[in-house]
């Protein structure tokens, strides 16, 4: 630790009491990673006949609590996981982006760097994989100074984050593309800037997320979960109880978030709920975009917002006509909001249910953090309280937010029956993974029991038992490697 002349300590991201922007580290791989990088380098060499100049590694994440509230402006509590997206990179002189993937199900792709076309068509499976990569390259090119712009890029991708499963494989890929484009241009940007660029870049894929995934991808640290806050994006360490272990389990139901309008409908419902409340409370509703904006304009607590929602919004789903009438604008004007363009006139909006989830979930994040760092609570009681918050979160996502899936609900039940102290879906939902909290001394017993249950109910083609249940711990965020 350094000290300045006032005696102030200079450590972490503070120097002489002043915030210093952190940059993505350039690291040497450990033995395990080196093996994977060598495999990736061989694939790269076989495709492009040269060796990569560098590698980027961007992890997935598990969100412990705070689901579907990042785009409403509220803090969330994720941690980076071990699974990641690796990309081997070299500059290319031909002004083309060349893309290949170690996994043959993702086909090779090539296009001109000045002609990136991310046209998203309606498909059941979601956008082509390389479009996530192109979003990232495009987002980075927009901020790199003219004189640094790269010629072309040779890239080979290899990821082991289960895709379409709520562990943020999409953002790892987009964020990796942003980072490697900046680095291949010999440019440097701080982590928080990279996170912001990546979040805005990923919105080109169609989903209007809130930035949690890209933020933890860059800000994640080994050994600590993070409270991620927004506007501007920032992260604060949350030390988890020593005795708590988080176990991820896969429901064997996958869902690509960009393949349906489910995700954006929730974003739209939250925005419309915020505007309707603002209007009813005589606040300038046009300036309100997120549920946090209306809370701030009313100057009340999260608990009070729950009462406000209960008074101001009704249970029955709203029609576009009712919303436009209440806001005092025409339906045509309402439909000019980009987020609403993809919805038919007959679309119904569950404003009360979604807003109630958001304010209660935001309060659970506050409680989760308070409990985690509380010194007066016994360890075991702490884990029990965190578990309760997680289970309440799942109940709300099931009932009010309607983003669960029968396979997720049944997996949550199984986890609880196997001894978890709490369990919930993680990520956007509609399939994917759950995260359960167990005490350290019970992890092996829990994992074995849950695997046994999963085997008893059947393993679908394409899944392997060992990948279906695994304990996890907070991991390092994005890094650049040379070998
Ligand atoms: P997630 O919850 O994992 O973020 P999304 O629905 O947001 O799921 O997007 C996942 C998409 O990201 C996949 O359908 C695929 O197109 C892309 N993707 C994820 N991992 C990889 C990978 N290793 N290689 C190529 N594309 C990937
Ligand atoms: P996943 O499940 O990783 O695609 C999405 C959003 C997050 C957040 C969560 C729900 C993107 C890129 N990610 O995550 O911002 O809203 O859902 O909490 O849109
Ligand atoms: Mg995603």
Notes on the protein architecture:
With 483 residues, the chain is α+β, with helices and mostly antiparallel strands. It contains 15 helices and 17 strands. It has helices at 31-48, 129-141, 169-184, 191-202, 212-219, 262-280, 291-298, 302-312, 320-327, 331-334, 351-373, 379-399, 406-417, 443-457, 465-468, and strands spanning 2-3, 9-10, 14-15, 18-19, 26-27, 54-65, 77-92, 96-101, 109-112, 152-159, 225-229, 234-238, 244-250, 422-425, 433-439, 469-472, 479-481. The strands form five sheets. It has a seven-stranded mixed sheet with strand order 5-17-6-7-10-8-9, with helices on both faces. It has a four-stranded antiparallel sheet with strand order 14-15-13-16. A two-stranded antiparallel sheet has the order 1-2. Helix 11 (351-373) runs antiparallel to helix 12. The longest helix is centred in the C-terminal third of the chain and has 23 residues, at 351-373. The two termini are 29 Å apart. The model is unreliable at 1-12 (pLDDT under 50).
């Amino acid at each position: 630790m350094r000290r300045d002349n006032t005696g102030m300590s200079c450590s972490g991201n503070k120097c002489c009491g002043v915030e210093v922007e952190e940059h993505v580290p350039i690291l040497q791989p450990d033995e395990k990673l080196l093996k994977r990088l060598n495999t990736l380098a061989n694939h790269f060499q076989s495709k492009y006949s040269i060796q990569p100049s560098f590698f980027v590694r961007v992890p997935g994440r598990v969100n412990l609590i705070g689901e579907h509230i990042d785009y409403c402006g509220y803090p969330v509590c994720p941690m980076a996981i071990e699974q990641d997206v690796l990309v081997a990179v070299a500059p290319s002189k031909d002004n083309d982006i060349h893309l290949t993937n170690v996994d043959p199900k993702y086909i090779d792709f090539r296009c001109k760097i000045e002609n990136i076309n991310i046209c998203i068509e309606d498909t059941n499976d979601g956008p082509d994989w390389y479009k996530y990569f192109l979003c990232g390259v495009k987002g980075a090119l927009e901020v790199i100074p003219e004189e640094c712009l790269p010629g072309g890029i040779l890239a080979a991708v290899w990821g082991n984050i289960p895709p379409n499963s709520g562990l943020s494989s999409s953002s790892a890929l987009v964020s990796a593309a942003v980072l490697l484009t900046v680095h291949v241009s010999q440019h440097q940007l701080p982590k928080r800037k990279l996170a912001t660029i990546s979040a805005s870049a990923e919105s080109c894929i169609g989903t209007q997320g809130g930035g949690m995934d890209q933020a933890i991808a860059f800000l994640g640290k080994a050994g600590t979960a993070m409270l991620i806050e927004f506007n501007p994006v920032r992260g604060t360490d949350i030390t988890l109880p020593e005795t708590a272990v988080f176990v991820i389990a896969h429901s064997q139901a996958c869902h690509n978030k960009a393949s349906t309008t489910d995700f954006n409908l929730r974003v739209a419902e939250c925005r419309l709920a915020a505007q309707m409340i603002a209007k009813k409370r005589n606040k300038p509703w046009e300036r309100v975009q997120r549920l946090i904006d209306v809370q701030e304009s009313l100057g009340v607590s999260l608990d009070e917002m729950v009462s406000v929602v209960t008074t101001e919004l009704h249970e029955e789903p709203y029609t576009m006509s009712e919303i436009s009438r209440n806001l005092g604008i025409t339906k045509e004007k309402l439909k000019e909001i980009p987020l609403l363009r993809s919805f038919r006139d007959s679309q119904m909006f569950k404003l009360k249910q979604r807003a109630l989830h958001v304010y209660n979930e935001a309060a659970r994040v506050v409680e989760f953090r308070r409990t985690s760092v509380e010194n007066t609570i016994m360890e075991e009681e702490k884990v029990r309280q965190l578990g309760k918050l997680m289970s309440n979160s799942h109940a709300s996502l099931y009932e009010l937010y309607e983003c669960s899936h029968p396979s997720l609900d049944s997996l949550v039940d199984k986890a609880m029956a196997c001894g978890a102290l709490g369990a919930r879906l993680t990520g956007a939902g509609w399939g994917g993974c759950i995260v359960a909290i167990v005490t350290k001394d019970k992890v092996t017993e829990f994992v074995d029991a849950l695997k046994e249950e999963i085997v008893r109910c059947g393993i679908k083609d394409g899944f392997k038992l060992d990948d279906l249940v695994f304990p996890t711990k907070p991991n390092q965020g994005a890094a650049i490697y040379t070998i």
